[in-house]
Amino acid sequence: MRRGLAGQRLVATFLGGALLFNYPVLSLLDRSEPFFGMPMLWACLFIVWAALIAVVAWIAERGAR
Questions:
Q1: C-alpha span between 39 and 13 (Å, rounded)
Q2: β-pair type (34-35, 38-39)
C-alpha cells in the first residue's frame, strides 16, 4: 500500500512540475525586474527546479522506510 502511495505522489509531483514549467505559467514571470540579482524568470525557474528535487527526494526517502 505504501509503495503505491509513493508512486502516486511522484506522478502528482511530475504533473505539477510539468504545469509549472509550461509556457502560460512561465510567461507570467517573464519580467525585467531583478529578483536576487537575476531576471525574475530565471530565479523562479531555479527555485521551482530546486523545490521539485527536494520534494522528489522527500517522497523517495519517506517511501524507503
A1: 25
A2: antiparallel
- The stretches of 1-65 forming alpha helices (DSSP H) are 2-20, 23-28, 40-64
**Predicted local distance difference test score (pLDDT) of residue 25:** 92
Q: What is the dihedral of CA 46, 52, 55, 56, to 10 degrees?
A: -130
Q: Are 63 and 2 in contact (CB under 8 A)?
A: yes
Q: The C-alpha cell of 53 is what?
A: 528535487
Q: Tens digit of pLDDT for each residue in 14-52?
A: 999 999 999 999 999 888 888 888 999 999 999 999 999
pLDDT of residue 23: 94
